[in-house]
Amino acid sequence: MQTALVGNPNTGKTSLFNYLTGSYEYVGNWSGVTVEKKIGRLKDVQGELIDLPGVYSLYPLSKDESVVTRFFLNESFTNIINIVDASQLERNLQLTIQILEFGKPVVIGLNMVDVAKRRGLEIDGQLLAKKLGTPVVPITARNGKGCNDLAVQLNALDNTSSKIPYVYYGKIVENGIMKIIQILEDEKIDLPKRWLALQLLEGNPDVTSLIKNDQISQVIEEVEQKLKTTTSSTTITRLIFDSRKQWIDQVIKESSRETEQSKNNWTEKIDKIVTHRWLGIPIFLAFMFLMFKITFDWLGTPLSDGLDAFFTGPLTDWIQSGLQAVHASAFIQALVLQGIIAGVGGVLVFVPQIFILFLFISFLEDSGYMARAALVMDRLMERAGLNGKAFIPMIIGFGCNVPGVMAARTIEQPKERLLTILLTPLMSCSARLSIYALFVGAFFEKYQAIVVFSLYLLGVVVALLLAKLFSKTLMKNESSVFVIELPPYRVPQILTLWRSTWDKGKGFVRKAGTFIFGGSVVIWLLSYMGPGGIGVDMDNSFLAMIGKAIAPLIAPLGFGVWQAGAALIPGFLAKEVVVSSMNIIYHTPNTASLQGLLTDSFTPLSAYSFLVFVLLYIPCVATVAAIRNEAGSWKWTLFGIGYSLVIAYALSFVIYQGGRLIFGL
Fold it and tell me: Would you name any one GO CC term (predicted)?
């Protein structure tokens, strides 16, 4: 059995998916979280559950919405769970009608009933089920209430179609539907004919590309002409929408009743402040600054120092004793202690700071604030030539650029989507955070939060300026309207916060055992060998030769030492490897010692120039692959690599040389 999980954005789909499958996918209290289908095994029922991106209609307007339509057209599945937001029932039922018209067995999960009650709407689930002709189960997907009942109803569904609600679309459209159904009888397509006819009449691009028939095109043209002569301005799409709305209004009227609204409407009161025209952006920036203050100055750094002491003290001693006990060769001991432990451990010491940062971001997401942040940033985005939806991939990019690039699928306009794909890698991801933590601890101890905050802000500012430039030159397009649903505020649950934080941070930990481990071994081998053989002095190693070849090129940026050049190159593999490389190159017992040695090669000005370069230069290999996949073009992928390198060099040059000129350094 294969069950499709379908619903509007931000209705609790992914929360329900996690509960029914026992897995954990990223959940956020804002739309656009799911951008591709995810498959999991059902816990209590035999079969698979397929979580599809949130859509308002089966008529696709963006790439992620097209995933759903194509799934309905091309995949074989048994039944459907349609999750519905009870507090937005009218809008949600527009999708429900289209799902029911598809004819597969359906069970409806009526979520957020408590929110609907607070808004003055009490829904009778049994009456609603009777009107829709399919089971309706009230649930609270967030905590699992009612989800077991939903699983029972799903198991009880037979393979017969649900009762299809008969929505009357008017004589002209109904005649058109009948004619198209007759034509489709000759087509070898095993899909519901009435559903196909309606989608063709609405002009669904995925359906029209599947069924190309001149007779059908002629019928649609006839329907359009008749509507023009009888109703003057009504289009087929508008008439179908209005007919569904009329039917939905009647269903809601007969299956619900209005009650007194809760007087304690905190959502509206808070929104007046956080979405204020002038206060909105300063409030957002204040939240971001507080996040970095907690991460670096108050909590994260002491925890990282403690972890560093463990790695460089007891752990290193235990491993060294173990290697000596088994009589490991000097080469193996050096590889493990100076290569793997120094490289991998030097990155893992920053795990506390990264997880605290993600915990804060998860709190803002689950509380409902991030949707408001996207709204207040819309004006800036629009002025820069971006759709307001671009802010969502950028925020996701703060965790990792790869899902950030993928999240651009939610943007309808192709050029706006491409622009977002190319600019999202400028967002400062968690991998860069380990480099920032190393350098700010060495050069800006009293101002760590301010310096890191400035780097994150700089990435956003550069992205907006480039968006303005590119949208006026390379990618001229018409601006589109930004619409986002503002979810109700809620107090995040501890378990949800932990899962969300772990989901964001586990990639960083996982890379320690893959990219960082492999990179550390390669870097150490290059530092251990040279033209003179094995075990050469570091300055005569192959790694030093590579670094010395690059050093003259980056000297104008203030960090023209071979160690910096050698560390930047493996950053293409994964940005964390920059820290691993420096730990291996400088061969220090702990992070504090490494920071001390860095002060011999860098000044505060050249250190900041280096951090700006790290922020903006070539994306990591995984992000490059994501850009290629989403942009669908090597031309734009190479452009993304090229422009980021040029911008990184230019801005670092201006900062370093300008700083020297201004401060007389």
Answer: plasma membrane
Give the β-pairing of 79-85 and 38-41.
unpaired
Whether 273 is in a domain gets the answer no
pLDDT-derived band of residue 44, with 50, 70 and 90 as boundaries? confident
pLDDT tens digits along 309-351: 998 889 999 999 999 999 999 899 999 998 899 889 889 999 9
58 close to 98: Cβ distance less than 8 angstroms: yes
Amino acid (1-letter code) at residue 320: Q
d(Cα 125, Cα 149) in Å, to the nearest integer? Answer: 13
- 639 in the same domain as 598: yes
- Both tokens of 350, joined, read 């920053």
Q: What contacts 226, CB < 8 A, 6 or more positions away?
A: 172
One domain, residues 66 and 125: yes
The answer to whether the CB of 106 falls within 8 A of the CB of 195 is: no
pLDDT, tens digit, for every residue of 393-431? 998 899 889 989 988 888 888 888 999 999 999 999 999
Q: What is the CATH number of the domain that holds 31?
A: 3.40.50.300
Q: Are 206 and 60 spatial neighbours (Cβ–Cβ below 8 Å)?
A: yes
Number of domains in the chain: 3
Mode of pairing for the β-strands spanning 121-123 and 136-138: unpaired
Binding positions for GTP are: 7-14, 32-36, 51-54, 111-114
Let me know if residue 482 belongs to a domain.
Answer: no
Query: What residues make up the domain containing 226?
Result: 171-258
pLDDT at 27 over 60: no
pTM over 0.70: yes
Using 50, 70 and 90 to split pLDDT, how confident is the model at 161? low
Rounded Cα gap, residues 438 and 592, in angstroms: 9
Detail the residues annotated as belonging to a binding site for Mg(2+): 18, 21-22
Q: Give me 587's structure tokens.
A: 């061969």
Element (H, E) at 293: none
Give the per-residue pLDDT at 30: 47
Pick from 129, 156, 183: which residue ends a domain?
156
Task: Tell me the DSSP string of 193-236.
Answer: HHHHHHHHHHT-HHHHHH---HHHHHHHHHHHHHHHHHHTT--H
The more confidently predicted of residues 471 and 614 is 614
Q: What is the dihedral sign for C-alpha 127, 131, 135, 139?
A: negative
In the block, tokens 């190393």 appear at 438
Q: Which residues are annotated as a binding site?
A: 7-14, 18, 21-22, 32-36, 51-54, 111-114
Q: Work out the number of other CB atoms within 10 angstroms of the CB of residue 150.
A: 25
Contact 133, 164 (CB under 8 A): yes
Look-up: residue for tokens 């204040």?
A: 286
Closest residue by Cα to residue 2 from 117, 134, 105, 152 = 105
The verdict on 507 and 619 lying in the same domain is: yes
